[in-house]
Every structure is written in structure tokens, then in C-alpha cells.
């Protein structure tokens, strides 16, 4: 288990981040984030070798701070993603909060498209959860949309966003920087990614 990842999860927990927020910050699934904050102290006392042999569930930790902390690099990534949409006809871009918003902003400016933000239910609290769908439709014009996010982990947030957009328009495509899910389509909407990652089981030669 990555020691740096565990320490970062515990730090975010101590700073008051909710589990969903920690998952977004670390680009891991909510289940992985929950496991880290519940077992972090114990894992830090174990050797990495012992921790790895005990864990059967595998998630991939993606850190792209070197890109998202640089406006120039982020813009270059956004331009690449915009180029991947050159054969798609659509009216607007929807950025999923929070990781997809900077990318969607830059892409919409470059492509001269309308821009909207969708906030997933996991980031809302109390009665705001029930009104999120209506709020999304009220601020978006009808039309065809592309959905943008940074990392696709399980596909649940993307599926939620697609369903919300369908109340007032047509989601044409979803595009992310990194896809950890392996899904080529969600809710009937094709998914594009700059990079698709996965795990490969290998055995050591004797």
C-alpha cells in the first residue's frame, strides 16, 4: 500500500473532508477512500510487503498534480481533449464538479460552446440532494452536450450526470483524462479517454 497515499487520506480526514471528497482528491473509489481512513494508522505501522500480501481488492491511485497545478499544462490537456471532439456535433459542455470543471471551462472557451457545471449528489448535503436534478435543468439550455471529468473510477458519478442531463437535453459523449473503469459506454453514452489504465496479474518466474 502506498504510504504517501495513506498519509494524504488521513490528513484530508483530519482536515474535515468527507469520504467522497477524499476519494475525489486522491482519485480513488469511495470504497478505497473509506478503507484508507478507517485503517490508515494500522497500515502505516505495517511493512509495505505485509500490507500488499493482505490486500485482495486493488484500486489504482492516480496523481496528476504536476498537470492540474499548472494552468499552461492543464490548458494543453484541455486542447487535446477538445481535438478529440472535432467530429462530434454538440451545443455545450458540462463539467463534473470538481475535477472536470477547469477542463470544461478551458474546452468551452476554445470551442466556443456553452458551459455548465454538474455537482454530484455525493458533494451535496441535506435537502440539496433532492433539488440537484431540477437545478441542473434550470441552468442549462436544451441541446446536445459533452460531459467532461478528470478521472473515471467506477462510472457511478458519470451515470448520475448523464441521467441528469437527459432531463433537459441529449448527452452526446463523455470524455475524461484517465479511465480506470474500462467502460466504453455508460447509460448509452460513449466514453472517450486520453488514457485507460488497468491491472495485469503476473506471476514471478521461478
List keywords for this structure.
alpha/beta; Rossmann fold; 2 domains; six-stranded mixed beta sheet; 9 helices; 6 strands; globular; transferase; glycosyltransferase; Phosphoribosyltransferase; PRTase-like
Backbone shape = globular
Number of strands: 6
Report the radius of gyration as a whole number of Å.
18 Å
CATH fold-type name of the largest domain: Rossmann fold
Mean pLDDT score, rounded? 85
The computed structural class is: alpha/beta
Most strands sheet: 6 strands, mixed
Q: At CATH's second level, what is the architecture of the largest domain?
A: 3-Layer(aba) Sandwich
Helical proportion?
40-55%
Please identify the top-level CATH class of the largest domain: Alpha Beta
Strand arrangement, largest sheet? Answer: 2-1-3-4-6-5
What percentage of amino acids are in beta strands? 15-25%
What separation lies between the terminal Cα atoms? Answer: 25 Å
